[in-house]
Amino acid sequence: MPPKLTISLLRSEGVRGAWVHCMNMRCRNYAYITWERMRVRGTEEVRELEIRGRLKCSVCGSREVRIRPYWTQPPG
Ligand SMILES: [Zn+2]
Questions:
Q1: Organism's domain of life (predicted)?
Q2: How far is the CA of 1 from the centre of ligand 1 (A)?
Q3: Of 15, 16, 22, 63, which sees the most CB atoms within 10 A?
């Protein structure tokens, strides 16, 4: 079992958000979203957020998303 990739663990590594990719083949939207905007708790895992459909694509409304933690500051 790999270690749990929780939000608080990512925060401790300086990760403030993630790229959220829409898995709808006709949409393929992606956006950088901070943990605050996702309204997640520190104890939650990235995988749980994907499985539970907590996040929704702002373009097509799909809840089939993949979350890729952003390990450095986003540009701008
Ligand atoms: Zn979409």
A1: Bacteria
A2: 31
A3: 22
